[in-house]
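Q&A log
Question type: sequence-to-structure
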Amino acid sequence: MALLAGVLLSAGAMMMPVVLRRPHVGSGGSIAFTVRVPGPGAVTVLASAGSRPFARGRATTRRAGNVRLTVRPNSAERLAVQQGHVKRVSVIVAFTPRGGTPRFVRLSLRA
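Response status: OK
Response body:
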């Protein structure tokens, strides 16, 4: 067992992976999904279309479990989706445990 930033964690909990479940892309370009995290920390999402930032999101967790996140595109990217200019969106989800190093999960979705 390890004491990390005032939180007691088992060695197995610190090594558990971050899992993305059920990504869904809405008609306006919003992206909703569930992230399974191994313990307390912060979940950060960056979605990009090509080299342009598409949407950002952030959530904080107090314990292990599922976190439901929905990120919505900024106004310029929402207009690009509606006009059919955005075909694919790359999503990077980072989970940073308290006092730890970030873990990344990457995926590509059709807009």
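Response note: The chain has one domain: 17-110.
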